[in-house]
Each structure stands twice: as C-alpha cells, then as structure tokens.
Amino acid sequence: MRVEYFERTPLDAxxxxxxxxxxxxxxxxxxxxxxTKPEFCTNLQVDPNSWASQCxxxxxFEDYKYYANIFYPDTEFFVNAxxxxxxxxxxxxxxxxxxxxKAAGKAKYAHMLVNPEWTGxxxxxxxxxxxxxxxxxxxxxxxxxxxxxxxxxxxxNPDQYxxxxxxxxxxxxxxxxxxxxxxxxxxxxxxxxREKYPNxxxxxxxxxxxxxxxxxxxAARKLGSMFNDFYYDLAAVLNPEVLDFMxxxxxxxxxxxxxxxxxxLWHGKRRWTYTEYFNLVREDFKFNKHEExxxxxxGYTFFLYEQLKNILDVTDKYGGKKTAEDIFYNNAxxxxxx
Length: 338
Ligand SMILES: [Zn+2]
What we know:
Helices cover 41% and strands 14% of the residues. The chain is α/β, with parallel strands linked by helices. The longest helix is centred in the C-terminal third of the chain and has 17 residues, at 321-337. The structure holds zinc ion. Residues 32, 34, 235, 260 line the site of zinc ion.
C-alpha cells in the first residue's frame, strides 16, 4: 500500500543531480527498513503520541521497489528485511513474510522479530526454518510504549540470546528507555550482552537513537573502548555532527547505511539542540507544527536525500569514495555474512 503523498518533485531531482548523483555508490544495502502486509496489521495498538507512528508503517516489498527506484535512480539497491515491530503485529505471519522475501531472492538479508514469551526450542525452529540472519527485537512489542523503561533481557529472553550466540548471528537492536544510548541501565546491559554472548554481532540501530549530540558523546564516554565493539546502522540519523562523531570515533567498517522506511517518505529535515531534535516537515501530519512556514517548506527535499547528502559529506572527509562504498554496501556483507 503506497502512501499518496510520496512524490519526487523537480526540486528533488535538482537536489539529487547536484549533491547525490555522482557521489552515491553504485550499489547499496539498506540495513534498516520494515516490511509488512495489511493482513498482519489488523490488531495494531498504535501509540497516538508518537510522531513516527503517524507516518507510514505499512510497506510491502513491491511498494519499496517503487519508492527505491525513485529515490535511487542510478543505484542497485538491496535490503535487509525487518518486520513491522508495532505492538499487536501478527509476528509469526510477518516473520514468515520476510523469510519468504529472502527465500525468493528479493531481500538479501532478513532479521526476525522475537517474542520473549517463546521458548528457546520454538524460537530456534522458527529461526532456522526462516533462514534468518538474526533478530530484530523491539521494546515496544513488549510494552506498547516508546522508549519504555524495560530492559534488553525483557524483550529477548536468555535462551533466545543463546541461540544467536550459538549461530554467530546478528541483532539489529533498538535500544530501550527514554535515556537512549547512554542510559546507565542500557550501558550495563550492553556490557553484559558483550560478555555473556560474545559471538552475537550487536548492530545498534539508529546509533543508539542518537539523533542529537548529547546521546552519542555520553555513550562513547561511558563505554570507552567498548564503544567500538558494536556495529551501527545510520537509520534516521542525519545530524552532521553525530555523523562526524561516528566517523571520527568508530571503526568505519562497523557503520552501515539504513533508512527506517517507510517512516521517511516525506520531504523535510531536522534542526537540533545539544539534547533534542525537531522534525521540519512539508507534508501535513498531525505532529507537524509547520515551524518554518509554507514558503520555506516548498524548498524542502526528501528527508532521505538530506540524510544521503549528510552521510556523503562526512564520508568525503573520512576516506571518500572507498569509505562510502563500505558504509553503503561492503560493511553489511562482511558483518552479516562474516
Ligand atoms: Zn526501525
């Protein structure tokens, strides 16, 4: 089900030609995006206070292909399929769908959602039958509250961690808690996961939801050298300072491109303070306060294009084309398959 507001305007084409066309690598893997079908979404419990939940949450693979051909007209694109993670989703059905995408060669990789109430045996059976590359666990799935105060051992149980550890697989981890990456309990649990399950490749989604500088600098300070033991996806991160901090402080082979589609199908960008971010959006969502007014909004390009430009500006500073090729493609292959 495609969203009706998705359109590439002449201004987007101009932005693309000017800043992206000659710089975007010839192939990319989107490590963070969600696929579902309407039949898995009949019992969703959507949080009305979350801005992201007002954006699209429904994307089938064919919808993605349509969007991606428009976003990336000159790039060969691949995906790591994640299921929808909204509370109430038909988790078995949705996991089955992304397993099918992988089996059919449509998705290069797939990470399944786990229910912490499942036994190890049941989880392992589903994991192996679906030929999954890892888990995409989610705190909301348990609590129904965004950034809730529940821990990493509440939304994945110890037997489930053991399975990933046994098969050396990855986990695209959306960190819980309002304090985000540097939350003391998150730091403690991440260290525990590293020590107890050293074979799990922990991919910290959205750089730990570090959309503003405070979160990433504090997390790096608290973790010390262990900050570099994790992998990172850049989904929804377009803060140039955060991107620069990542490139300067993390091994560039540990960073991967991601978009969090279908959330970001609109035109807009962000502004930041040290601790906060604000979405500036053209399209009419309930959360949109139209802060800059219609004249400025008419000049917005795709949020995704702003992100691409900011990533490419930073990779230019840290190794150029080679680094961009790693972040957009090579790192994902090495990390997921390695
Ligand atoms: Zn996501």
